[in-house]
Amino acid sequence: MFALDQRLQQDTLVIGDFPLCRLLLSNDSNYPWFILVPRINGISEVFQLDVADQHTLWQETTALAQWLNEGLAADKMNIGALGNVVSQLHVHVIVRKRDDAAWPAPVWGKHPAQPYTEEQLVAIRSRLRELLPADFIFTQG
After folding, report:
1. Rounded to two decimals, what is the model's pTM?
2. For the chain, domain boundaries
3. What DSSP string describes the chain?
4. Which CATH number applies to 6-130?
5. What is the pLDDT of residues 3-44, one digit of tens each?
6. Where is the HIT domain (predicted)?
């Protein structure tokens, strides 16, 4: 059974599942900040995935970035897999806008996280239901 790293559990909200990856939302309303985590235990590097899963990870990452870019009017999409703090393989997909709290600097450690309100979560989930494909499996919420 797939196990999500404790730190990711603590800092994110589960949105649902693509065929390979769990989609998380960083609980920081300063930025629309999403995280894709392949649902395979014991993986910390992209090259540890088999070739088919590497392709699926990249397809899910780029498709998500495109949907968010168009649907949330990004000025720039930031995509990265660092893993220095959380070693479980995960890919950040962050919508950046010129008027966001950290622009143009990286988002990490710039400002204290502002947790989403229930109203904001309802709105972002509703928007994602419009943007994501029909085969995306949303969690309850």
Report:
1. 0.96
2. 6-130
3. -----HHHHHHEEEEEE-SSEEEEEES-TTS-EEEEEES-TT--SGGGS-HHHHHHHHHHHHHHHHHHHHHTT-SEEEEE---SS--S--EEEEEE-TTSTTTTS-STTTS---PPPHHHHHHHHHHHHHHS-TT-EEPP-
4. 3.30.428.10
5. 999 999 999 999 999 999 999 999 999 999 999 999 999 999
6. 1-103
